[in-house]
Give the backbone structure.
Amino acid sequence: MKPASSVLLLTTLTGFGYGLLAWLAVFALCGGLPDSRWFLPVAVVVALAFAGAGLVASMLHLGRPERAWRAFSQWRSSWLSREGVASLVTFPPALGFAVLWWLQGPDSAVAIILGLIAGALGLVTVFCTSMIYASLKPIRQWHNPHTAPDYMLFALFSGAVLLALLLAAWTGKASMAALVALAAAIIAGIAKLAYWRFIDAQPPLATLASATGLKEYGEVRPLDAPHFTENYVLREMGYRIARKHAAKLRRFVVFAAFLLPAVLAALAALGAAPLAASLVAALFTALGLFTERWLFFAEATHVSTLYYGR
Amino acid sequence: MTSLPQPAPNAKKLGLVIDLDTCVGCHACAVNCKEWNTGGHSAPLPDHQPYGEEPDGVWFNRIHSFEAGCGSSSKTVNFPRSCLHCENPQCVTVCPTGASYKREEDGIVLVNADICIGCKLCSWACPYGAREFDELAGVMKKCTLCIDRIYNETLPEAEREPACVATCPSRARHFGDFNDPESKVSKLVAARGGVDLMPELGYKPVNKYLPPRKASIPTKPQEQGGGTGNALLRLLDKVLSR
């Protein structure tokens, strides 16, 4: 599948944003945030800015972006529509969380309840995003039990890294969030390794023989293609460029997205230059997860390309 | 509404039967499809660089050729590929706007180009690669089963069939109602063992493909040597063959 940068940005940035929102709610509930009326509102704005940037990027993927509002209508059947609805519904309670915290301080129960609602809705949005991919039967690398939990884990991981950075920037000290980021990096990394193991062992969904209904004649081989140049189906679904670099890129993802952030988060948790460590960890997490998402598309194969012998 | 309709009790199930035994791979169906539909319901079907280095464009019907089997029983099979108007079309249910829909009355799967946002998700959901994106209009396009021919009262009744069916010189394409057991398409499927493409994916395609017949016509082995012509020509043949 062609990795369109708009979709890669959408899925990684909303992961950072809604992941951060979820952790802010949890830390607010547990009293793990700085005793300041400003930290939480600023952090919520950062979370919504990440999510909003992802949603704006996704509009660039559309052939007719001016009609994007129509995507809110089919939530009964379409995960893409549900994603749109959930992403917007998250904003009012998140803003309420920030405003009430600012007005009433960290003891405001209503603020924390609104925060928990917003955090949950944010994670629902990430789940809807993951189900867009997990529900597509023609793509075996997406339509499997790994996709949805992986998206949730990556969102919680990137959100924790971002929270650790914000806390380090605010207090200049080691924080609980760095420990959470360390644990999340390890769990998310293991999940990604398990995913690759799974897709590498997966049998193909169909064969050219079943795709043509010619099973009883034995093996079926492509002879002549309908056209000599690429068409939409081949460009969109038959994307092959740089799939050959997949092994190298997988190693880069393990290093940049999970290993290095885990080490840096451990340093930050121990109090060794928490701000610098958290900042570098966040930058590498972003770069690593963007590459991870690129691979998620580039390594995905679509059954329709069987007709072209791909 | 992109939820699938409950078919009415007297609803039709319109679709095609494609006979892989008689298809000669001439591409006439693809060309007539393009010709009709570039002025029809989903018009236009744009072309990019039609006379250039990398010609490309939107087509609803693409003709592949495959080799099946090995040895003397192997076949060369020409294989037209287009929308199968599935009974369980995921391309419809994934649509976030309701632009992609399945008609209750006859099961035809269509795109409403006026509300399509061009997210391309429907094309990802189709295992048959039947949908093609119109980059110029920014919307998805697909086979309409020539809805503007089959119900077109300005056409003579005999011409109210899809363009691909009307034009096929070897009568390898048939159009009709699969809900009517007496229709030509139902009878053909029953008689010839019509099959679904990729039944394992569960889309329940309406269009059926008739597999090539296994019977082959016995032919005499070709004669060896100069069995023809007179002595002079045989000699000439020998000399020239040296």
About this structure: Residues 6 and 123 of chain B are 23 Å apart (CA to CA).
